[in-house]
Design goal:
Layout lengths: L5 E8 L6 H11 L6 E8 L10 H17 L8 E4 L5 H10 L4 H5 L2 H9 L6 H15 L5 E3 L5 H18 L7 E3 L34 H9 L16 H14 L3 H7 L5 H27 L2 H30 L7
Parallel strand pairs: 1-2, 2-3, 4-5
Helix pairs in contact: 2-11, 3-6, 3-12, 6-7, 8-11, 9-11
Length: 334
Amino acid sequence: MIGDEKILFSGMQATGNLTLGNYLGALKNWVSLADEYTTFYCVVDEHSITVRQDPAELRKRARNLLMLYIAAGIDPEKNCIYYQSHVSGHAELAWILNCFTYMGELQRMTQFKDKSAKHADNINAGLFTYPVLMAADILLYQADVVPVGKDQQQHLEITRDIAQRFNSIYGDVFTIPEGYYGKAGARIMSLQDPDKKMSKSDENTNGSIYLMDDPDTIMRKFKRAVTDSVGSIAYNEEQAGIRNLIDIYCACTDKTPEEVVREFDGKGYGEFKPAVGEAVVSRLKPLQDEFHRLEKEKGYIDSIIKNNAEKASYYSNKTLRKVQKKIGFPERIR
């Protein structure tokens, strides 16, 4: 543990463009966690290369993601925001943990099956051992808690299994992480298919609102949002499209579903959709303005990248050296 606070680790991949769902479901809620935890927020670029990436584009997306963390309100002085690839301990610990992870465990991972189906021409070893690197990400900082959605619970479970297996052999080396189920973020669904989550990898770009979409694009996407033929603004399971729009409106205005239903009682979808779009435009404008300001502050962003990589390396090395000693690697001569 660092100081008296528990440690929280999380991160996002440096691929695709962050969506409104990423912001309302996770990023927005990370802002206040520095008051409760020592936080490490990783720009996950090593995981990104399990799928082929354009090098220049990957570098650009990684930097943009780091700036979006800050633009969303995550203070880089209070939170350690860094590139995964700048801390060699992630890869070093991952190799060691590979030797404590069973093939059968990895073969059961849902994400490996899904990505293998999508990228049949590139089923690489990194895709298979992806969960071990994720375990290393978490265990390297002795994280007490990890924010997890339903799609990440399996990764947390294998992380716990690996840590417990290692500890049973070498003693209490790793903290066993728990899932963080604090204030629930909004679960935002696709505007074109309200039965599936809004995703930055969705091939239909009209289904997602990206954080840097301009106001005209946002309004156009909401006007095209899939609804139903009922014609009334109601919050129920049967009207999935309208329910999703109400969730988005609530998340952007801090109103309850009941308040929204009353506000639009007797009004049609043609009036409700633009209202949701305007609420999103207003919510994203401060973030977009701050992002554009940060783009011009190259020296400041470079200093954040350098200083936080050093901070992350300092803390991660404590765990890595302990692990290396436990398994019998020769001590480094300084």
